[in-house]
Every structure is written in structure tokens, then in C-alpha cells.
Amino acid sequence: MDTVSHSEEETKIIARDFTKKIPAASVVALRGDLGAGKTSFSAGVLAALGAVGPFQSPTFVIMHRYDLPRSSVQGIRRVYHVDAYRINAPEELARLGFDEWVSDPEGLVLIEWPERVETLLPASVTSVSLEALSDTERRISWESLSVGGLMRGAGE
Ligand SMILES: Nc1ncnc2c1ncn2[C@@H]1O[C@H](COP(=O)(O)OP(=O)(O)O)[C@@H](O)[C@H]1O
Ligand SMILES: [Mg+2]
């Protein structure tokens, strides 16, 4: 999937369509620079799942958990919105309970700045890439791919 969004609102609509394809227990890695739209895209996913806002960036709390008022069609009941921007070492996020969030069979993990904790990511993540093309345009693409599977536990 590869598309161009022309506004924050359009990014949320694209996120809503993306949400329909995401099964429970998925990990979605949101990649892109500061201001690319990772949090806006996350807000679109949360709205699509019926989570109760406001949907603020979890930059300072690291993880914001949303308990959905009703289960989604895919069986998602909880969303763990993670921002690893302020995490200096993967162990810090591990200590906060990352493995529990990832292994919640009724959970969905959205993680911004996944590259900061790449070694913690499960073998199968869906990566969404956002790239600013102008003030208002963002290229948004995604694919399912394996990251870190073989590297897990190695290095760092
Ligand atoms: N097409 C677009 N999609 C998403 N955000 C956009 C778009 N055009 C402009 N913006 C602006 O870019 C910023 C994106 O911020 P945010 O979602 O917090 O990014 P990130 O989480 O990647 O740092 C917001 O101020 C938003 O209004
Ligand atoms: Mg953000």
C-alpha cells in the first residue's frame, strides 16, 4: 500500500481503512521523522476502533492504554499506544512491560519510534512509513514484514 495524504484529516481516514485489515495481537511499527504524522495516524486507528479520546501523544508517559468500550470486529479490546522516542535502551521499555502488551491476544500495539527498540520487536510486525513531502502532504505506505526475528536477543 502506498498513498499520499493531503491533510491530517485524510491521514486519519487512511488510518481508518488500515485498521480494518489489522487482526488482534498485531504490532504496528510507525516509522517516520518528527511531525511525519505517526501520532495523527494513531489517532485515526484509535477513533476507528471506537476508543474514547482525547488521543494525546504518549511521548511523556511512554505508553497510553485504551480499553475499548466494545470489542472490534477483529476482537481487539485494548490498544497500547507506545512512543519510544524517550527510550534510551530497549531494556527500559521491556521493564515497563512491553512483552505483556505484545502478547495480549486481544491487544493492538501501536509503536512510534520503533527503531529505538528494534531488538524488542516480535518477528512479525506491520510497518507503516510516513514521510513529509510538503507542509501538508505525507506519503504513507505499509507492508507486513518480519523485523528483528533472527536478531532478537542479539546485540544491545
Ligand atoms: N497530511 C498530513 N497528515 C498528518 N499530519 C499532517 C498532515 N499535514 C500536516 N500535518 C501536520 O503535521 C503534524 C504531524 O504531527 P504528529 O502526528 O504528532 O507527528 P509525529 O507523531 O510523527 O511526530 C501535525 O501538526 C499535523 O497537523
Ligand atoms: Mg508522535
Explain what the structure shows.
- With 156 residues, the protein is α/β, with parallel strands linked by helices.
- It has one domain: P-loop containing nucleotide triphosphate hydrolases (Rossmann fold, 3-Layer(aba) Sandwich).
- 22% of the residues lie in helices and 29% in strands.
- It has helices spanning 8-19, 38-48, 90-96, 98-102, and strands at 2-5, 26-31, 63-67, 78-83, 107-112, 124-132, 138-146.
- The chain has a 7-stranded mixed beta sheet with strand order 1-7-6-2-5-4-3.
- β6 and β7 form a beta hairpin.
- α1 crosses α2 (38-48).
- Mean pLDDT is 92; it is low at 146-156.
> Architecture in CATH?
3-Layer(aba) Sandwich
CATH superfamily: P-loop containing nucleotide triphosphate hydrolases
* Amount of helix: 10-25%
Report Rg. 15 Å
The SSE string, one letter per element, is EHEHEEHHEEE
* Spatial strand order of the main sheet: 1-7-6-2-5-4-3
Which molecules are bound in this entry? adenosine-5'-diphosphate, magnesium ion
DSSP summary: helix tally = 4
Low-pLDDT residue spans? 146-156
* Proportion of beta-strand residues: 25-35%
According to CATH, the fold-level topology is: Rossmann fold
Mean pLDDT: 92
CATH class: Alpha Beta
Give the total of beta strands.
7
First-last Cα distance: 32 Å
Q: Summarize the main sheet.
A: 7 strands, mixed
The general outline is globular
Which class best fits the helix and strand makeup?
alpha/beta
How many domain regions?
A: 1
